[in-house]
Specification:
By secondary structure, the chain is of the alpha+beta class. The protein has 2 domains: 97 residues, Rossmann fold; 29 residues, no CATH class. Helix content is 23%, strand content 30%. The protein has 4 helices and 6 strands, in the order E-E-E-H-E-E-H-E-H-H. The longest helix is centred in the C-terminal third of the chain and has 11 residues. The protein is globular.
Amino acid sequence: MSVIARPGDSGLATQTDGFAIVVEGLRKRYGSLVAVDGISFRVKEREIFGLLGPNGAGKTTTVEILEGLRSADDGRARVGGIDVRRDPQKVKNVIGVQLQSSAFFDGLNLLELLDLFAALYKRTVDAMAILK
């Protein structure tokens, strides 16, 4: 799963101190199961970063918290300077996400797929310009 900030998006104008992502003491429980146990890390702008660990280590849950899809029980998380807990919708508006698995429609070419996904957000795109 990848999380990518969109360059030039006004939502990223928040103070970042050079970090695209800041996570401090993040915790998430599901009943008695501790899914994320106080993880902290920082990702610099333009840095390539990965979360590694065995199944059940909390990698997906951590990323879902950063995407604003799940809420943390404790700790802080900022994406592009935006507090994920306080404004998850703003985070969703300024990131792009590639899911762990995805399937495309067999009958569509890449240009048609770009148009399709843009339409889901009520946007139009110049697919050829994106691909250059």
